[in-house]
Amino acid sequence: MPISYNSDLRVFRLDTPRTTYLMGLAGKENFLGHIYYGPSVPNDGLCELLRLDERPFTPGEVPGERASFYDAFPFEYPAWGGGNFREPCLRVIDAMGGGNCELFYESHRILPGKPPLEGLPAAFGTEDACSSLEIVCLDPVLGLRVHLLYTVFDDVDAICRSVRIENGGTAPVELSAALSASLELDNRDFDLITLHGSWAREMEIDRRTLAFGKQEAFSLRGISSHQYHPFLALCEHSATQEQGSVYGISFVYSGNFLAQAELDQFNKVRAVMGIHPDGFSWHLEPGESFQAPETVLVCSNQGLGGMSRTFHDFFRGHLIRGQHQPRPVLLNSWEACYFDFDHDRLLELGREAAQNGIELLVVDDGWFSHRSDPTTSLGDWTVNEEKLPGGLKRLGDELAALGVKLGIWMEPEMISPDSDLYRAHPDYAMTIPGRAPTLARDQLVLDLTRQEVRDCVFEQIAAVLNSAPITYLKWDMNRPLIDVYSTSLPPQRQGEAAHRYVLGLYELQERLVSKFPDVLLENCCSGGGRFDPGMLYYSPQIWTSDNAEAIDRLVIQEGMSLIYPYSATGAHVAACPSHVNGRVTPFATRGRVSLPGCFGYELDLGKLSEEELALIPQQIQEYRQYAPVFHNGDCYRLASYRENHSYDAVMAVSKDKSLAVVNFVQVCSRAYRRSLRLPLAGLAKNVRYRERETGVIRSGAGWMEGGLLFEALQADFYSKLVALEQVD
Ligand code: DGJ
After folding, report:
1. Higher model confidence: residue 59 or residue 249?
2. Phi/psi at 692 (5° precision)
3. Whole-structure pTM over 0.70, yes or no?
């Protein structure tokens, strides 16, 4: 039984294949407390870990020490009130303006499968493969019920959590915080890991000692953001890539978030994850509910690599729909010609693509209305017949004759003040009444909280997709939400606008993938500004960063791989010198760095040398042969250039362990370094593997312990791909 309740001990038990999660009820009041999360443990004695033998007892036993109970108790879902001074998940303002809330266990049920979350992306699993626990806690004064939902899966060591808050009282209430999960842990000399960055520098790993007080990653930009990531991990200070305890929490959401860890006065840790409370409020009339988005918890005692492989399996198997395998190799027009193209130029790109074995041409920004720079036309999704006479249909047909498919770019959430849509419906833009709208990239954000705005956007997208043989859509989003205000909401409910925007976005993308299931959707947000599990529910791949320069990409992809599988990451061979950082790198190395992801080119093929062009068929063949191992197998980060400042190596092993690939890049050569022996990982110890290029045969143990030899080379930006295949 993966989920059980022991009524004698009053303990809930969740089991994944290799982890256990325990909660228990305390006192005659039935407080719900966290007991344990970690490697699987037998069913004995752990209820004592709720530590009720320690003072203070629950208030029912020692009423005079109520406050100190609240100050220390490891609440499973902490609310503000009673003396809980650490970050609460729930804050409620009642009809009288009071701000206290106290939750007590009321009931529970265990269900086969996993119920969907209304309007939100969420993990899925069949009734045979997963089961769920719903615990209901009640604030008897407010009549407020909190439905805590947990799901465990048979095949992966992840636990999903979400919360629904229901006003079962007779008066309205305001939620001013409704986070999705809290995790209470004893500090085990933890480091905190978050991802930070900026445009073109997304997802850099930041690891630091967990200090007393609150440390957080967050977004208030209306998108999950380039700057921080909806994720945190706590790992033992001694944890390495393959050893030590790690807890990871990921948030299946694409808007404002708070990921926070607090080390408190008792050397205990509370980690919380959810929609950021700043600027958030939600009004609940009696009988109404608020559904908070889902979190995914992973616990690994095999280091950061173990955590990553679990997240990869989980997202591939239980979150990302529409796998669209194999992904097409594409040529994107953006860094090839930006806005400067017409039908003939695109057809020329198509011809070059066809000659080089590239399957798809993506017409990026600039094909619609009179858009030839970023200042205009967003919202008017009709083809620019001056640039493309005969429209996308003619282009698609002519490309098809060459054997190349057509993909297009759109930015459906936006509106340019210089657009027919804005002239007809200025109110469709989100602006704050009485204030000048805040432009960013010369554009405004459409108010997706409104049904008529979503309908207008969807009808335009559908008309474009129906007009031509389009097989791929890149959905871009190029600015944060700033003037967050919806004319559809009364003044006292404007705190709902940012979340309602995200719900509107999800509804739009759901309609899109339901109506056009064969179109491969790629999300993008000026690169990786919204690379999160929420968006991955709709699009199986996301454009990782506008920085496709190979060396910077090593760092970005390292951060990405902490949580997401390579099959989720758009990775293109870009122009050189890099348009983003000016660096000059060999064409071969740019190909190798892109190989593990969803591969493509984003440059003017006509400007390549004969030698570079000659490499393209080889790169595509390598991609076809080895990317599936990265996309579907187990990945290992063998060496981090970010850490060692010299070389980087990632490895993937197929699930049946018959094929392994090592992708090595020497970024910066070191004088007198001699050769390098890189211990491999993930192979079957007693199986013999042959290195395909050299024919050298060794056991898995031999490769893992002895290492793979890289000769000392005096070359910067050198790359090598090594494949090992099972011999017997
Ligand atoms: C930002 C994206 O990240 C780029 O790849 C490109 O599509 C531009 N927008 C187009 O405006």
Report:
1. 249
2. -60, -40
3. yes
